[in-house]
Specification:
416 residues; six-stranded mixed β-sheet; binds the ligand Nc1ccn([C@@H]2O[C@H](COP(=O)(O)OP(=O)(O)OC[C@H](O)CO)[C@@H](O)[C@H]2O)c(=O)n1; Metallo-depent_PP-like; repeat
């Protein structure tokens, strides 16, 4: 057990040098990240306390007791130092400032065409005004007290109708022009593949993979992770890794997808859902993850667990059956749920695709599954976007228009 003063070297190259209480970072310490960033300050329950104050009336105190010494180590790098001390940590009791904030928006599906309807003709689609709603979202984000450091764009940026009108390039340029003032992380949805080939997308501005992590999962899978703030990781997943959309008919991914789809869907039109319940997900406009991507996700989460980070996953397709209409569920949702359930660091799974939105809190794991309402089915006098303010212990999602406000407290498992 790590207890007292010592240094822990993490497998990814980061290190924490400071005080431990029963395997938990508590008291004073320095965390050095592999990229050279460092944080020196107070720690409590594994988390940083950057809001140390000097104004007595705003403080309450927490007493951290340290005693004994280290008796185990990671590798052979621990310094075994006997230590007995009591430390008082002062914590700000005033309303807190978020550590950082980010914006979220889903299914803009812009096209310069008149309004239409979804396939079932139950919901109106506002193709032309969706770009106006994006402008309103950008305006709101730019005026936020803590401006979003980045935007999660959850896929289906432009609508498939553009392809039929030979307007794909024009439409995507128009929307990306609006987004040029922000750092957008783009997720790919089915409408990306109606408009563009996977090769084109990988070479385009819709590939927001940060430099350096390009080849992590393999050149043909669009998945990456980034850390906008120490202790927080975001993972972008490729929901059309195993799919008919965007894969060459001769490719293994296409053949694997066709075999899977044909097993469950006997309809001539593979976009027509088979059966009822969860079987409905086996349609051509959905997709799934390859073993390769799942194993990459597993390895990223092993690393974030070890660092006691909080992870948010962004993906076009929802993966929890209680957070979406089953028609919109990822094909192998059960396999990805098994992976994220086997780790402690995931706090939130954000998706789009189901324009009606959805939400489910998985009590077993403490993971919040949020499916964002689609801009495309949002009337021009409303909107569908969010700003998420991130604190040490929670994320506060402030929704606009059809998106509801929510608070996601981080599960104890990623705090200890
Ligand atoms: N029963 C159905 C449903 C759809 N199709 C065809 O499938 C393609 C994709 O449908 P679409 O509604 O455009 O996909 P979105 O990603 O915009 O929306 C997903 C969810 O439905 C939103 O709630 C399209 O070509 C449809 O015509 C079908 O054949 N049979």
């Amino acid at each position: 057990m790590k207890h007292g003063q010592g240094t822990l070297y993490y497998p990814d190259g980061s290190k924490f040098e400071g005080t431990w209480v029963k395997d938990v970072r508590e008291g004073h310490g320095v965390y050095a990240y592999p990229n050279g960033d460092m944080y020196e300050g107070e720690w409590l329950n594994h988390m940083r306390y950057p809001r140390m104050l000097t104004h007595a009336h705003t403080l309450f105190t927490l007493t951290v007791k340290s005693h004994d010494h280290f008796s185990s180590c990671c590798g052979n790098k621990f310094v075994k130092t006997p230590i007995v001390r009591r430390q008082t940590v002062m914590v700000d009791a005033r309303p807190q400032q978020p550590l950082f904030a980010f914006g979220v928006i889903a299914d803009i599906q812009y096209a310069d065409i008149d309004d239409g309807y979804n396939f079932q003709r139950t919901n109106r689609r506002y193709y032309r005004s969706s770009i106006e709603l994006l402008r309103n979202a950008l305006d709101s984000w730019s005026k936020a007290a803590v401006r979003p450091g980045f935007i999660l764009q959850l896929g289906d940026l432009i609508d498939g109708h553009n392809k039929l009108l030979a307007a794909s390039d024009r439409a995507v340029d128009a929307v990306l022009k609006e987004l040029c003032s922000v750092d957008a992380h783009h997720v790919w949805g089915n409408h990306e593949f109606y408009n563009f080939s996977r090769d084109w997308l990988l070479r385009s501005k819709l590939n927001s993979t940060p430099q350096g992590s390009q080849k992590e999962v393999g050149s043909n899978v669009y998945a990456y992770h980034f850390s906008p703030y120490p202790g927080f990781t975001f993972i972008v997943l490729d929901a059309y890794d195993v799919a008919l959309l965007g894969r060459e008919e001769s490719s293994p991914g296409y053949r694997e997808a066709l075999t899977l789809l044909r097993r469950f869907n006997k309809n001539d039109n593979l976009n027509c859902p088979p059966g009822v319940g969860l079987l409905q997900r086996f349609v051509m406009f959905n997709g799934g993850f390859s073993k390769k991507q799942l194993s990459w996700l597993d390895s990223v989460l092993t690393s974030t667990d070890e660092r006691h980070e909080k992870v948010t996953i962004a993906c076009h397709l929802p993966v929890h059956p209680n957070s979406t209409d089953p028609l919109c569920l990822l094909w192998n949702f059960d396999e990805v749920l098994a992976v994220i359930r086997s780790h402690s660091s995931v706090v939130c799974f954000m998706a789009g695709h189901d324009h009606d939105g959805g939400y489910y809190f998985d009590e077993d794991t403490g993971i919040h599954h949020v499916t964002f309402e689609g801009v495309i089915e949002t009337p021009p006098d409303s909107n569908a976007f969010a700003i998420v303010s991130v604190y040490e212990d929670r994320m506060e999602l402030k929704g606009s228009g059809r998106v509801a406000d929510r608070v996601f407290f981080f599960p104890q498992s990623c705090r200890s």
